[in-house]
Structures are given as structure tokens and as C-alpha cells.
Design a protein that fits this description.
With 497 residues, the protein is an all-alpha fold. It has helices at residues 6-22, 26-42, 49-67, 86-90, 101-141, 159-175, 184-192, 205-213, 220-251, 259-291, 308-314, 317-328, 338-356, 360-382, 390-409, 413-424, 434-456, 467-484. It has 18 helices and no strands.
């Protein structure tokens, strides 16, 4: 079910009525959320609800298993642990009973079970055919003919998102940062929370689970801000992202585009993927806020970044922080010397690229981002006396990011070479052409809003307008959304990841 569809508005309207009837009854509220979330997910393909339930149940019972015998863990009322990792506490000699070696071994085995189960399912459905076909082509280069048959499974929508979300819970329970929940309804609601189930943000148990366990307080400002976020996100998707798509798709489907076409289409895709993905996040956060929940910020003006590192602090924040906390830091981070730091960056961004999809262009995009982060780090460490003006840092970051999006959007290595070659053979740009004029018209409202947000340092600055002015702005958004509304609602780009 898509946010930009009439089906969703009917679904949410019915759900909202039921929600306000049971919102003060904790158990009923969570089970209503579970049922609604599974209906929401089953609308796409009911068969894959089994995978969602499988991942949830495995990690629920893994968490319970890790919690057995944790006398060293002191739990606060919101379910978040007071201290750091249980293993670290077990080595303290403060009179607190330490976990036995048997208990620690059980916890490690349970963590391995969670990792193997979740990553195994993810690999089977998302990556098996990719590695099978890559192996077949590699063997073909050595004259070996492998005629394997691919499984060709449909990729379950949102599997990368909810897999990382539920894994973060078991890892945090293992580390002693989150107390295992014993309430099945709360945990199922946490994993399947429908506003962010399909495309994030990737929430942490420490942030969202306590909200599932407390009494909700829904105020008028929460409803107003949630409505604003939803409308602005819907506008970014229906009007801007889908509009930019009409500029992108023709260029990436022709054989030999001109340099100006490649440039404009790449710029349009940079705006398309941002409006599409951040639009989904805004809608998810808006829906959650209207229901009384708070989801983490996932985008913070990424195209205002002045370095590649700064870009990744602003773009898909829930994924970049997940990769940092659960991959980069465990690998050693920047604590083991320069060479190891660069290797860790390479591994993390390579896997980050693969997270987006089972294709070599995503591998190339991950390597490109890793290279940018390495150069960024080397420069910051070795050229501290050379101050780069912010405008130059911004320009270089934008150019670097744009070529990365070309790698991301391309459908083959041959197309990457073709499009890159077209940029090398520059022709007079079609600045006065229809294509560029349409790009400017579509980009104008986005750039105006983002510049306003950047100048004020307030991502929800529109809410500070007088009520009358805010109402007019929202009415204009609704009118424009209706004008651009499509009966066959285009899916979000990140659904395929």
C-alpha cells in the first residue's frame, strides 16, 4: 500500500477511528497497531508477511533468551538500561553479580542465531541470484559453462529496512544497551510499525520500544506538525519526485545522450531520489506524530553539505548511523591506525552500496562513496592549515555526489561508460531548452523551502508562520497535489531496496 494512493487514505481513516477509541488501553492499542501494520504490508503481497513475522518472532525470543539470568542488568522504567554493556559490567568488581561464562556463551550463540536467521533470509531473497549470476559470468571467462537456473524470487518490499531494525534490537540487547522486552505485542508493533515499515527510518529499540510501552499524549501541536510533515512529504513525492522522473527516465533509456542531457538528467535524479525518499520519511514521521509517536530525523538538508563526511551526516541518517554503530565501530573504527581506518571505510561503504541493491552499479556507488570519505579524511588530517572556503567545499561535494548518483541510477557498466563519455565530449548546453526550464520550475519550490530551512536552522520553520499564512500554504500544497495526482500511483524508489 502506497502513501500516495486512495487505498491508503481509506485505510488510515478507518485506522484512525479505531486508534482514538483504544489509544488509552495499552495492550489493545499495540495489537491494533500490529494488525493494521500487517494489513498494510499484506496489501502488497500477503505471502511475505510470513517473513516479517519470522524475523520478529526469532528476535523476540532471542531477546528473551539473552535476558535470562541477567542479574547484572538494572532496568529503568522505560526499558533502556542504565549502564553500558552487560559484558563490561560483568568485569566490574562492585559487588554486582557478574554473568557466568555459560550465560555469556548462551548470549553469543543467541546473537549468532539472530544474525544468521535475519541475514540468511535477506541474502536468500535479495542476493542469491546476483551472486549466482556473477559466479556464472566469472566461470564463463575461464571457459567453464555453468547453466544454473536462477530462483528469481520477488524481492519482499522493505526487507532491508525491517531486517536492520530488528537486528539493531538483538545487538543492543546483547551489548546491554536495551532491556529485552517481554511484551510480544509491543515488539511486533515496533518491528512492523506501518508508517516506517517499508522505507524507514530504521528505528532503534531504545528509541521506539519505550514509546510502545507508555501512555500516549497527543496534543494539537503534534497533530498540526504531523499534518504539515505529511503534506510536505506528499508534495515532494507526487509533484516533485514524480515530475523529476519524467526528465530522468528518457535520458537513461536512450543509447547516446548528449552531454547536456546527461548533466540535466543526473541533476534531476539527484533531486528525484531526495524528494522521493525524504518525502516518504516526512510522511512516515508525520503519520507517527499524529498517532503520538516520534520517529528519528532521516534527512537534514544533505545538499547543503560541505564535505562527503558532512553529506553522510545528513543523508539517510538512520542507515549511516546504523552502519557506524554496528559495523564501522566493531571493525575498529578509527582506533587502529590510518590504514585500518581506510579499510574499515571501504568495507562499510561497499556493504552500504550492496544494501541498496544486488547489482554492480550499487557496488560501484559504494566504492565511489568510500573513496570520497577516504580523501575527505586524508585531507582533514594532513592539510589542517589549508582552509577550504565553505562555498568551495559545497561545490566539490555537490559535483562528487552528482557523479555518484549517475553510478547509482545507471543500469549497467556499459551505460556508466556511455554516460561518462558523453560528459567528456561536451557540447553547448541546452540551457534555454524545455528540459532545463522544467527542471528549474520543479526545483524552485524545493530550493526556496530548503534555503528558508537552512537560513533559519529550523526544518519545520513553516510551522512558525501565522496560522492564516500556514493554512494558505497547506491549501496550496493540497491543490497542487490534486493537480498532479496519478490514478496509478508510482512506487517509491527505495521500495526496491
Amino acid at each position: 500500500m502506497l502513501f500516495n494512493s486512495t487505498d491508503f487514505f481509506v485505510f488510515f481513516g478507518v485506522f484512525l477511528l479505531a486508534w482514538f477509541l483504544v489509544r488509552d488501553r495499552l495492550a489493545a492499542r499495540n495489537w491494533l497497531l500490529v494488525i493494521a501494520s500487517y494489513i498494510f504490508y499484506a496489501w502488497w503481497d500477503y505471502r511475505f508477511t510470513a517473513l516479517l513475522l519470522f524475523s520478529s518472532l526469532v528476535d523476540y525470543f532471542v531477546g528473551l533468551g539473552m535476558g535470562q539470568g541477567e542479574s547484572a542488568v538494572r532496568e529503568r522504567s522505560d526499558g533502556v538500561l542504565e549502564k553500558g554493556s552487560v559484558e563490561r559490567q560483568s568485569h566490574q568488581h562492585s559487588g554486582t553479580p557478574a554473568l557466568s561464562s555459560v550465560s555469556l556463551l548462551r548470549r553469543k550463540l543467541l546473537l549468532i542465531l539472530s544474525l544468521a536467521s535475519n541475514l540468511g533470509v535477506l541474502f536468500f531473497f535479495k542476493y542469491f541470484d546476483f551472486f549466482r549470476e556473477s559466479t556464472r559470468l566469472l566461470l564463463g571467462h575461464f571457459g567453464l559453462n555453468a547453466s544454473w537456473t536462477g530462483l528469481q524470487f520477488i524481492l519482499p518490499v522493505g526487507i532491508s529496512f525491517y531486517t536492520f531494525q530488528t537486528l539493531s534490537y538483538t545487538i543492543d540487547v546483547y551489548r546491554g544497551r536495551v532491556a529485552p522486552t517481554r511484551n510480544l505485542g509491543q515488539f511486533l508493533a515496533y518491528v512492523a510499525f506501518f508508517p516506517q515499515l517499508i522505507a524507514g527510518p530504521i528505528e532503534r529499540g531504545a528509541h521506539l520500544l519505550p514509546q510502545m510501552a507508555r501512555k500516549l499524549k497527543i496534543t494539537l501541536p503534534m497533530i498540526e506538525s504531523g499534518l504539515w510533515l505529511f503534506l510536505w512529504g506528499l508534495f515532494k513525492k507526487v509533484v516533485l519526485a514524480d515530475g523529476f522522473g519524467h526528465l530522468v527516465d528518457p535520458v537513461f533509456s536512450i543509447g547516446q545522450p548528449e552531454a547536456s542531457q546527461t548533466l540535466i538528467a543526473t541533476m534531476a535524479f539527484a533531486l528525484q531520489i531526495y524528494c522521493d525518499f525524504s518525502g516518504y520519511t516526512d510522511m512516515a514521521r508525520g503519520l507517527a506524530r499524529m498517532l503520538g509517536f516520534d520517529l528519528m530525523l532521516n534527512f537534514n538538508l544533505p545538499y547543503f553539505a560541505t564535505s562527503v563526511q558532512d553529506f553522510w551526516r545528513r543523508w539517510h541518517i538512520s542507515l549511516s548511523t546504523w552502519l557506524r554503530d554496528y559495523l564501522y565501530v566493531p571493525l575498529g573504527g578509527n582506533r587502529l591506525g590510518g590504514g585500518r581506518t581506510y579499510l574499515n571505510l571501504l568495507i562499510v561503504m561497499l556493504l552500504g552500496g550492496l544494501w541498496h541493491g544486488a547489482a554492480w552499479n550499487f557496488v560501484a556507488w559504494g566504492l565511489w562513496q568510500a573513496g570520497g570519505l577516504m580523501v575527505n579524511r586524508a585531507w582533514s588530517e594532513n592539510a589542517r592549515r589549508v582552509r577550504v572556503p565553505p562555498w568551495l567545499g559545497w561545490l566539490l561535494t555537490v559535483l562528487f555526489t552528482l557523479y555518484g548518483w549517475l553510478l547509482f541510477r545507471a543500469t549497467s557498466a556499459e551505460q556508466v561508460l556511455t554516460l561518462t563519455a558523453s560528459l567528456a565530449h561536451w557540447s553547448p548546453p541546452v540551457w534555454a531548452g524545455v528540459m532545463f526550464r522544467e527542471l528549474l520550475v520543479l526545483a524552485a519550490p524545493l530550493l526556496a523551502m530548503q534555503f528558508w530551512q537552512w537560513r533559519t536552522g529550523d526544518l519545520e520553520v513553516a510551522l512558525r508562520l501565522p496560522r492564516c499564512a500556514r493554512g494558505l500554504l497547506q491549501a496550496a500544497l493540497i491543490y497542487t497535489i490534486i493537480l498532479f495526482w496519478q490514478r496509478e500511483a508510482p512506487a517509491f524508489i527505495y521500495f526496491q531496496f
